[in-house]
Amino acid sequence: MRRMGRAACGKILAGLVVVSGSSLGNAAADEGFRTPSGNIMCYYSSGELRCDVMQMTNRPPPRPSDCEQDWGSAFAVTTRSARGFRICAGDTVAGNYRTLGYGKAWRRDGISCSSAKTGLTCKNRRGAGFQLSRAKQRVF
């Protein structure tokens, strides 16, 4: 099942965040960033970028039947994925990360993100990714 794989992938990445954050102290912050508003937090590990929207004003799509955890506010893209995706996650990647200022970009291993007052756009070399803001989220 494709969704379960993505949900599991998000669970694994989030587990890495908890482990590395507790054992490496500030080193984990080097792999993450946040938008100036603090509403979007992102963390990169092992070829996957996960971003969480802390507060949304819109309603997410229906929860998949195989998702038993939080749904709708966590997004991911891998270096090889053909499309960005929402993930089912029981945790968050929120952390004390550096701020990616408006008009600035972040790049790692073929994934890039650009920060704007209208939101955050992240994509891989294939053009797969997502656009995130408080009011709207879109995967492509």
Question: Which features would summarize this protein structure in a list?
Answer:
140 residues, alpha+beta, six-stranded mixed β-sheet, five-stranded antiparallel β-sheet, 1 helix, 11 strands, 38% strand
Topology overview:
Elements: H1 2-24, E1 32-34, E2 40-45, E3 48-53, E4 70-78, E5 85-89, E6 98-99, E7 105-108, E8 111-116, E9 119-123, E10 129-132, E11 137-139
Parallel strand pairs: 1-6
Antiparallel strand pairs: 1-2, 2-3, 3-4, 4-5, 7-8, 8-9, 9-10, 10-11
Runs with pLDDT <50, length 5+? 1-30
Query: How many strands, which pairing sense, and closed or not: the largest β-sheet?
Result: 6 strands, mixed
**Structural shape:** globular
What integer value in Å does the Rg equal? Answer: 14 Å
What number of domains?
1
**Percent in helix:** 10-25%
End-to-end Cα distance, whole Å, is 20 Å
Structural class: alpha+beta
Q: What is the overall number of helices?
A: 1
